[in-house]
Amino acid sequence: MKTVEQLGIAAKKAAAVLASASSEQKNKLLLLAADMLIENEAELIAENEKDIQAGKAAGLTKSLIDRLRLTNGRIADMAKGLKEIAAETDPVGEIVEGITRPNGIRISKIRVPLGVVGIIYEARPNVTADAFGICIKAGNAVILRGGKEAIFSNLAIMKVLKSAVEAVGLPEGTVDLVEDTSRSSATELMKLKYLDLLIPRGGASLIRATVENATVPVIETGVGNCHAFVDETADLNMAVNIVENAKCQRPSVCNALETLLVHKNIAQKVLPLINEALLRHNTEVRGCERTCAILKNAVPVTDDDYATEFLDYVLAVRVVDSLDDAMEHIRKYSTGHSECIITESYKNAEIFVNGLDAAALYVNASTRFTDGGQFGMGAEIGISTGKLHARGPMGIKDLTTVKFVIRGDGQTRGV
Q1: What is the pLDDT of residue 1?
Q2: Residue among 381, 387, 397, 62 nearest 222 (CA)
Q3: CA-CA to 71 of 20 to 30 Å: which in 39, 42, 377, 405?
């Protein structure tokens, strides 16, 4: 088992080669890896089952088991994702802008790879393939460090990816996995001098630990305490459908709904309808006093609940007096990920989207759309909730930077 330091040295060497790799070579790797995932799906599922059984024995929640599980369909989606990445335009070498100065010097700003990207993530083995694909397309070497819950799955996927790398003749350090899943290995990766960027993907504790401990550049991603506000003008059926989808379609992901805010003038009508939809998914409602008075199955909510990313079939609910109250609540508890208003009022919609600060603001649509593929960007590496370098779904271009190339014919500076 290689040390984190050894992985960093190998990745840095590989990054120098990948920076000048052709689009054809990178695409060949991605397509081959996609085919090999399908060819090895039986082994991948068998190894994943070891993680599933260990997770059940450890008491992982139903939603975490769902995040962990690999199926034929999910492996097919992983392969499809790599093929879609291969079909994307290669950003490396793009001339972002160029000028010719009065002295004849020609200046070009050119898109180039970041170099070595590290990714720390939890119990989602599909991230192993997804992150590999996006980093490779952008010309970066990548070091992956998954959670202990998915170690057998990640090792099996990595075996496939490394075989594909070898088959196309790219360096060994192009992609690798930190096999040590102890906390010390995560800390070591956070301080690895060979990394040009570190991206944490997971729950609040992982992201907070990475931001606080890393000595390399970090992009904060993922924590999604997402809200939906049902305005007094909202269409009832639309409100029910959006809330049910945002909460229950896949509650274990960062763009799932965690808190529902409802205007007092519509609460008596819409809350029972929403509750009926939620009960079909065995979703627990934790509500304020006014919510509990309307919904007898609701349990009292706490301030901690309003600040929690449940990632489960649990929804915090509050009845508010006005749009301003809803926005004040969101400002207090939002993680800057995705916020939604359901309304028939253009004025209220504009107040909402202009008055709140988040990576994605929705009017009459589910927060589940915050995703690179759904935004037409292709694959994504994560959802950035920060404001520097990238914000929202991070696609292939977001894993590049720029350099200036200056061409002259003997010019010198006089002053």
Answers
A1: 85
A2: 381
A3: 377
Using alpha carbons, select from 153, 204, 155, 190 the residue that is nearest to residue 175: 155
Give the whole-angstrom CA distance, residue 152 versus residue 50.
7
Name residues of the chain where pLDDT drops below 70. 222
Question: Which value, in Å, is the radius of gyration of the alpha carbons in the chain?
Answer: 23
Rounded Cα–Cα distance for residues 225 and 387 (Å): 17
Q: Which residue has the tokens 């790799």?
A: 21
Tokens of 106: 């020609």
- 171-195 in b/e form (b: 16+ CB < 10 A) is bebbbbbbebbeeebbebbbebebb
* pLDDT for res 221: 77
Tabulate helix, strand, coil % of the chain (nearest 5).
Answer: 45, 20, 35
Find, among 101, 135, 107, the residue nearest to 119 by Cα: 135
Output the six-digit token pair for 72.
Answer: 């034929």
400-407 and 106-113 as β-strands: parallel, antiparallel, unpaired? antiparallel
